[in-house]
Amino acid sequence: MDTTLHTPSEALADSVAKLAAARPVVIDVVPAREISAHHAAGGVSHAGPPIVPSKMCPPMRAALGAALTLEGAAGTAEEAIALVESGDIPLQPNHNVGGVGPMSGIVTGSMPVWVAKDEATGKTAWCPLNEGSGRVLRYGADGPDVLERLAWMRDVLAPALRVALEKTGPLDLYDLHIKALTDGDEAHHRTESGTAMSLVKLAPGLEDADPAVPRFIATNGQWFLNLAMVFSKLALDCARDVPGSPLLTAIARNGVEVGIQVSGTGDQWFVGPAAMPGPARLFAGYTEADMNPDLGDSAIVETYGLGALAVAASAEAAYNCGLDPEDRFAITTELRKIAAGESPDILLPNGKGAILGVDALAVAETRMSPPVHTGIAHKQPGVGQIGAGITHPPLQAFDEYAALVPTSAA
Amino acid sequence: MDTTLHTPSEALADSVAKLAAARPVVIDVVPAREISAHHAAGGVSHAGPPIVPSKMCPPMRAALGAALTLEGAAGTAEEAIALVESGDIPLQPNHNVGGVGPMSGIVTGSMPVWVAKDEATGKTAWCPLNEGSGRVLRYGADGPDVLERLAWMRDVLAPALRVALEKTGPLDLYDLHIKALTDGDEAHHRTESGTAMSLVKLAPGLEDADPAVPRFIATNGQWFLNLAMVFSKLALDCARDVPGSPLLTAIARNGVEVGIQVSGTGDQWFVGPAAMPGPARLFAGYTEADMNPDLGDSAIVETYGLGALAVAASAEAAYNCGLDPEDRFAITTELRKIAAGESPDILLPNGKGAILGVDALAVAETRMSPPVHTGIAHKQPGVGQIGAGITHPPLQAFDEYAALVPTSAA
């Protein structure tokens, strides 16, 4: 432990420097059990702070049952969930076992995950592959089409990506973010530029792959989201555990509660109730009554300073999340009040550096909770995505953290 | 001229052999004036058989005026069209000057085109680059957004593609079609697999390109259509001018008339009235009263034997063109009655070779006009695409050709 730190501002600066220095590169695609001891031991993991199956929102519970059935853990979803309830199948939040997953974020041992590494620190993190849009597991869809796609991803897509990475070498996620933020991505809702550029980088290794592999990537504009997530997760892990630092290191939603983690307090979760997204832009045929509360680990992107905190970069994301695109520069400017730092390399269209990290104490003081660009799941299982919008983690969680900080810090 | 041919069936077999032997590869992207003498002389070209501006359908006329304004030919669209009317700007059908263009198919001298070459014969053909969907020139949209995109394609996209082709070498279109037809493309309405695979092939040459370049390709599922068109055009040009052969070498629509060309009769057009598409699947908010009649050179894909003639390959294309996807194998089987041959390499999902070319005499005899999967333009200028559907070239055109064939051939 670094004992030279004396003030929160020094500690914050130290953790922001570590965040700025992180250079995550994708080194492999492996079954989760090969990178995570929890999954190697037969465990399963979920998005957000800890939650037991009986308390899960219906989309997460449906995803849990479906994923474990595909894993062969039991004959039916209900039997599989019972094994989790009894503790026979260990359950952990993704963040507690080194990774992140979008929306329900259910990850089982055979599920392929991106593995990112930061060479300077030797740290790694993981995130599953993006399934595409519509009826997909992470949004709580659990039909045979969903399981068939997951099996194809495991048996065809993941091995092809592994071969591609072997041929092309590591994928530089820092460089891809610098470029994507200049071309209309904010790296959460809008990830089309990152998707195209990551495909370009992997392409020389995909020439002999099943033609369905590059098509699956090219036709899925959200493909890069999971790479933005593993990038943000690993970079923030590099900035963890700086004594006294109020740098936010995670925002994670399980559909019932939202948890945050802070650098100076390590793996401790501070939680509050999950809000309903708003503003929101729902697909035709759905109403606000269909929405599930805030869900998924993808808010790790905002924790880094991208997504809703970099909305200035993407008129398209602003529109699709229910904002007036003309407001986007003013929003990012206002959010600098809770910024921990500014990126020297990832620039917004106005030439300013993107926000780099969030100061959890500033959030508590300004009462300005960081916005998150989120997908919105139907509250019933089996449906899938019904729109996108903006959510905020509960100030209660930030207050709980702030209460631990000696008042002399103020 | 090959004087060893004695019967239509021998002549047909000879032309089909030439069609089967064609191996178009993309060798460059250049301004049209660098590959076409007509465009080098200040000319402009359009889809379909010959037509004068005063007879053009509104979408084509709007595209003509907008393209010439961008070219700097005149200050306004009306002034530019007047220069065409007066003959000061020469006008030709694309097919008459070595190329093809989708929908309105307007091509000016500075507009970038794919250049394909068949190494064995030394023949070349060209087709402009795909603009994407929505409000685009080829569907008759002519606003500032349309011109801005075209300028970007000319100034950024085309040079990047040229650099990419220099780095990666020629793009093998025959090989891409073999793969795309196994992965859900029929190569006219559904071209997502070809799009992804062509991006994969070009990607090693795009690593230093503006990030907007790979994104433009990856987010445009119709990108490959123009490559399928230049492939089909060049392959069919390789099978032209075989004395006595009834092999169809072009189906082309100008929105008022549809023209066909046949191998044995060279560049002669046989024309009839352009039909309304039907069945059709229109975007929400449009009705059949909004449809423009049959438009574009893209029917060259069906002339080769793909698109609607290979509908068995694509449930998605069948659905989006207004068919019941379950009928798709029966449709392709029935269409073998007008097939000139069968591809030895491009296979349908049932393992049979795709139709290779159309026998124009068989069309006249069976009264079965080849279907075409077509995009549908709004009949008014400035709108763009309103749906997709199926059209048929007029039997009158085939009858006009058949009337020239000595009755002893029957």
Overview features:
alpha+beta, Enterococcus faecalis V583 fold, v583 fold, four-stranded antiparallel beta sheet, 14 helices
Topology:
The structure is a homodimer of 410-residue chains.
Chain A (H helix, E strand, L loop, with lengths): L7 H14 L2 E8 L5 H4 L3 E3 L11 H13 L6 H9 L5 E3 L18 E7 L5 E5 L15 H25 L2 E2 H8 L11 H11 L9 H7 L6 H14 L9 E7 L2 E6 L7 E4 L6 E3 L12 E2 L3 H5 L10 H6 L7 H8 L6 E6 L5 E3 L4 H7 L5 E6 L7 E7 L3 H8 L8
Parallel strand pairs in A: 2-3
Antiparallel strand pairs in A: 1-4, 1-6, 4-5, 7-8, 7-11, 8-9, 10-15, 12-13, 14-15
Please tell me about this protein's structure.
2 copies of one chain form a homodimer. With about 400 residues, the first copy, chain A, is α+β, with helices and mostly antiparallel strands. Chain A has 2 domains: about 25-230, Enterococcus faecalis V583 domain (Enterococcus faecalis V583 fold), CATH 3.90.1710.10; about 240-410, v583 fold (Alpha-Beta Complex), CATH 3.90.1700.10. Helix content of chain A is about 35%, strand content about 20%. Chain A is built from 14 helices and 15 strands. Chain A has a 4-stranded antiparallel beta sheet with strand order 5-4-1-6. In chain A, a hairpin with a 5-residue loop joins β4 (about 110-120) and β5 (about 125-130). In chain A, α6 (about 175-180) packs across α7 and α13 (about 360-365) crosses α14. The interface between A and B is medium-sized, with 26 and 26 residues.
